[in-house]
Amino acid sequence: MTSLLQHPAPLFLFLMVAAHLLEMLALLLDGRQLRHPLPPQLAAWVEEETWQKSQTYTRARHRLAFWEANWNLLVLLLFWFSGGFAWLDRSVSGWQLAPWLTGELYIAALVLGSYVCNLPFALYGTFHLEARFGFNRTTLATWLGDQGKMFALALLLGGPLLAVLLLVLQQAGTHAWMYGWATVTAFSLLLQGILPRWILPLFNRFEPLPEGELRQAILDYAARIDFPVGQIFTMDGSRRSSKANAFVTGFGQQRRIALFDTLIQQHTQGELLAVLAHEVGHARHHHLPKMLLLGTLHTGLLFGVLALLLPWPGLYQGFLLESMPLHAGLVFFGLVIGPIDLFAGILFKALSRRFEYQADQFAVRSAPEPGALISALRTLAKENLTNLMPHPLSVLLHYSHPPVGQRITAMEQALR
């Protein structure tokens, strides 16, 4: 144990490779699951042609995920063991800038490098894979515009946040982790307020739902269950993809309902109200505040562990640095804690799946057509070529929503 603490590179390598192999195992088992025939409860509403196309789409996505994950691990290991982290630190430190600005440049360079390494996979996924199955509607001009906006937001929002964090951790002494935690928490709450009003409209056009039968039906439903509604919008999701969705943001009279235009095109009014009822269920059960609270506590725990690891020389030596710059410590902490924090992710996703079941049950009880959410989920699954039979390990690691078949079964049982 003492040897590992003094020379922790093998331990760090083991953690990262173990997490990677677990991800690869989930992909492998998910692929094998596709060989099984559809169970009767799914075969009753999924046409054979749709099932075959869904299998092909899922396998294509798995192949892309496989190559991307392996490429990322290879690049990380090559950069790490060739002394890349130390070289980059010497390069940015040689400019003799303020420590916080040196840290900003160090982390920005790594983020930009990671972005460039993943760029071919992003382009292939959007313009080949998604287009091959008829989902992609994003033009190159739209995609480039989105990238530019994301870079601008990273500079305007992420840059100041990182600068404050670096200054706090450098100067706040033994309680720095608490101030860092408070900083990130305040930023997260601020983001909840500005995201629907200022950030999302940068990427999509939101227009008030026109007066008519659907709008009136939504208002009548909201009034019947005493659910305050601020504004109802349609979102031009079809500008980028044929996939459909809906969401509710904000609280009280500031609550905003957004329906993808593709959702309105693909579903009946009863199904749309059922989808909305599901989103209302999340609000009624206070799922968002609960997840925010748990996320805040989780962030606090991470900052507490960060405070313990930053003064440890082994954190830096494991990545071949002789000095102990704060900015490098933040990066190395993220790399080391990621595989360990996988278990927290499993717990959060399990809770999220439970919340989805609760929202489904609320929709069954309150929607004007109790069974409409079932037909809506069936349509969504077929239109989006959803993986109908994911392996339990894949669900455990990645699924924030239960598999669609399990959701439908739970609602059918509630309707009996």
Q: What do these coordinates show?
A:
By secondary structure, this protein is mainly α. It has two domains: 2-136 and 284-415, no CATH class; 206-266, Zincin-like, CATH 3.30.2010. Helices cover 74% and strands 4% of the residues. It has helices at 2-6, 9-33, 40-43, 48-81, 84-93, 99-132, 140-171, 176-203, 213-224, 261-266, 269-284, 287-309, 313-317, 326-366, 372-383, 392-398, 404-415; strands at 206-208, 231-235, 246-249, 256-260. Strands 1-2-4-3 form a four-stranded mixed β-sheet, sandwiched between helices. Strand 3 and strand 4 (256-260) form a beta hairpin. The longest helix is centred in the C-terminal third of the chain and has 41 residues, at 326-366.
Helix and strand string, N-terminal first?
A: HHHHHHHHEHEEEHHHHHHHH
Q: How confident is the prediction overall: mean pLDDT?
A: 92
Number of strands: 4
* Regions with little confidence, pLDDT below 50 for 5+ residues: none
Assign an overall shape.
globular
Largest sheet: 4 strands, mixed
Number of domains: 2
Question: Span between N and C termini?
Answer: 58 Å
- Major β-sheet strand ordering: 1-2-4-3
- Number of separate helices: 17
In helices, the fraction of residues equals over 70%
Strand content: under 5%
Radius of gyration: 24 Å
Which structural class is indicated by helix and strand composition? Answer: mainly alpha
